UniProtKB/TrEMBL annotation:
Keyword ATP-binding: no
Signal peptide: 1-25
Keyword Protease listed: no
InterPro entries per record: DUF4955 (IPR032532), DUF4988 (IPR032149), Pectin_lyas_fold (IPR012334), Pectin_lyase_fold/virulence (IPR011050), RHGA/B-epi-like_pectate_lyase (IPR024535)
Gene3D superfamilies: Single-stranded right-handed beta-helix, Pectin lyase-like
Residue ranges occupied by any DUF4955 domain in the UniProt entry: 684-831
Species, as recorded: Bacteroides xylanisolvens
Protein keywords: Coiled coil, Signal
Protein's name in the database: DUF4955 domain-containing protein
Amino acid sequence: MKNRSITYLLLFGICSMLFVLQSCQETDDLRSEIDSLKNRVQILEETANQLNTSIESLQYLLNDPVIVGITPIKNGYTVELSDGKSITVMSGEAVNALVPSLSVDNEGYWIYSIDGGITYMPLKDANGNKIYAIPTSKPSDPDKPATPIQSPKLKIDANGYWLLSYDNGKTYQNLTNNDGSKIEAIESAGKNSIFDKVEYNTTSKKLTVTYADKTIELQVIDTFYLKVKGMEDMQIFPLNETRLYEVEQQDVTGVVIKAPKEWNIVLKDNELSITSPKANDIENKEEIINIIITSSKNYIRIVPLKVQLLTTGYDANACDAWNKYNLGEADNLLLDFSYAGYKHGEVAPPDVWSLGYTVYNVKDYGAIPNDNKSDREALTKILAKIGSKVDNAKAIIYFPKGEYILHTAADDVDGQSQTIQLLMGGVILKGDGRDQTIIKMDAPNQPKDPNVMYSSPVMLEIKHNSGLSQITEVTGSADKGTFSVEVASTTGIKVGDWVCLQLVDNSPELIKTELSPYQPTSNMTNLHNDGVQVYDYHLVAAINGQTITFKEPIMHAVDSQWKWTIQKYPHYENVGVEDMTFEGKAKVDFAHHGSWEDDGAYKPINLVRLTNSWMRRVGFRSVSEASSIVNSSNVSVYDVIIDGNRGHAAIRSQASSRVFIGKVTDKSNGFLIDNRNVYEQGAGQYHACGVSKQSIGAVLWNVDWGTDACFESHATQPRATLIDRCTGGFMRFRQGGDYNQMPNHLADLTLWNFNAKNNVTDSPFIWWDSNSLWWKFLPPIVVGYHGGSINFNESQMKLNEEQGKAVTPYSLYEAQLRKRLGAVPAWLNSLQ
C-alpha cells in the first residue's frame, strides 16, 4: 500500500469513528480530540524537520569548516561557511515524543539512542552497513572529485513510526531497535535537535557545540564581511525608486550582485544604490537581492537583502499637505526643513580614522581605566598640549575601552565645580563604542547658586568663546523660504563665510505681528524688553552686488522696516563626539524643579558655537540633562540611547539653526510626574528632545521618547521646528519655559506622523491657554497624528490633516531631502 501522510490517515480515522462515538461524546469533545491530534501531528512533523536540519549541520561542523559569519537566532545561530553555505545550529527544545538522539562514534559513524543517550546503536543502511558521518567520501578514482555524502533524513510514517532515508528522501526504511522492532514516536521526553548546547563567545570568537557527550569548538573569522546599514530588515520600495545605503566592508576583494529582474543595483566604494523596477502588477512582491563577496583567501559569503515591491510610485498616495508643498502651490504651509544637519543633511560625517588627525590616547597621558580614580588630569594634559583657541586642531582624543572618571568632588575648587573647556575646532572625542567606553561623573557639579536650580555647570564644553558683531544692515525684504537678502554693503563678507541673519527689535507693532493671531500679555517681558529675536545662521553661497545668497532657505520672513542685520559669526567647525556613553548619578526619585540636584547636577557635555559638527553612537545614563547644542548651526546628533534614572532634559537645539536630532531612544526610568507612587520603566526624561531659546529650523527625526514625557519647547522664541515620525508621550507642561519668556513656540511648529504612546486626557486639547501663564503655542501644523485618541481644538491650528492614521510620505524630512537631492542620502537610510 502506498504511504499516505500521517495527517491524512489520522484525521480520516477520526472522522470514520464519529458515527460510533456520537452517542457517547459531545461534539466539543470530538473537536477537542481532533485539534489535539492535529497539534501532535504538526509537532511531530516539525520535530522531524528540525532534527534533519541539525543532522545536516553537524555533518558540516565535523568537517572542520572555516566559519566566516554568525548571526543569533532563537536557541542558536545561523552559521556562514567559507564556501557560501549557511547552516542552522540550534540547541534542542523539549517535545512530547520519543525522538531518536543522534551522535557520532569515535570512528566517525552515525549512532542513535532511544533511551536518552544511555545506550547507542549504529545507523545502518538497507544492506546493513554503518553510515559514515564525515561530509565527503574519498573517491574510488583519485582523479575524480570527492563525492558528497548525503545526510540521513528522518520522518514519521502514517502509523507514527520513525523512518530513515540515506538518499535525500527518495526512499525510506524503518528505524529499528536491536531486535528489529520498529521505533514508534510515542509520547515521551524528546528533543528536536541533535545539539544539546550551542554557544558563541563574542570575546574569543569561538563557537562551541555540544551533542551527546562530545564537544566541537570552532573559531569564527569576523574580519571578512559586507554590511548594508539599514537593510537588516525587509525594505519596501515604490516603483522606480532609488535609495542609497551606507556599506561597511572588510577584506572584500570581489563582489558579484545577483538581482531580480529589472532591479538596478550598483555598489560603489562604501555606498550601495538600489533602484526598483518601473512596473509591477503583483501586490507586495517580495524578492531577494544577493550580494556574493569573496575575500583575499577566496572565502565566499552571500549577503541577502530582502525587498518588497509595491505597484505604485512614491507619491501615489501622498497626503494633501505634501502634494501642495511638492507642487509649490500658493496655499502650501510647509517650510523646507531638508537643510538641517551636518553638511545640510547631504552626507554623513567622515570616518575619523581616515582624517589623518593626531591621536591622543588618554592612557598615554596617565589615564587608567576601571581603577575608580579620576582621569581628569590626563585630559587636561592633552588639552594643554593641543593648545587653546585653535581653529583646526586636527586631533582625536581617544578613550579606549573602559571607564574613565572626569569629575569627582575633589575636582571642585572652593566648593565650585569647573567645566573642562575645549576651545578648538577640528577635534574629535572618540571611544571604542557606546557599550565599551564610559565617561563618568562620579559626583554632582555644584551649582553657582543652589536656589537657581539650573546653575550647575556642564562637565565638558566644546565651544568658540566669542559672540556676534554687526557687519551690515539688511535693506531689502525677503519672503520665508527664499535664499537671498539685500544689504547695505557686502564689504567684509565672502563666499564660504558663515554669518548670522539677525533681528532684535522690540517695536510694539512687530511684536503684535509676531504673535498673531494672539495678543501679547504684560507678563511677556522677554518680548517687550528684548524684542523679537531671530538668530538665523547661514552659509554664504553667492554675492552679487548688494545681494547675498545663502546655501539655506530663510526660515523667517524679512521685513526691511525692522532692525534686520548681518552679523559676523565666529565659530569652530568639524567637531565630533562618538562611540561612548556619558554616565552620571541622577536621583532615583527625580522631581521637576525639586532641587538643583534634580534639575542640573549631572550635565555631561554641550557643544557651543559650532558648525558642521556631530555627535553620534553615544549614550547618556542617569543624567540630569544629556546635551545642549548652543548657538550653533548644522550640527547632527543621532543614534543615541538615554537610559538609567530619568532626569530633567534630553537633547536640545538651543538658539541654534538647523540642528538635526535623530534616532534617539529614551528609555530612562523613574516616578511619574503626576503620580509619585508609580515607578515606570521608560518614563523618559521630563523634557524630551526638543528646542529652546531662538532655535530655528531644527528637525527631530525618528525619536522615541518616554511615555511620561513630551517634546521640549522651552520658550524664549523658538521657531520653525519639525517633529518628524517621532514616538512617545504627549503630555502637557513638559515643554518648559518661564512665564516671562512665553510663548513656548512661535510660528511653524510642525508635527508629522507623530505616534502617541500616551495621551493627555484634555478635551479639547488647546494650544494657547489664556488661563495659563505657561502654555502658549502659535497655531501648529499637525499631519498624521496617530496612536492615541485626542480631541484637538482645530481653531487653534493652521492644519490638522489625517488625524488617526499615518500619512504618506512617512517622513517629511526624508521626502524633502529626496526632492532636493534626487534620493534620500545613504547615511539617513542606514539609520532606519
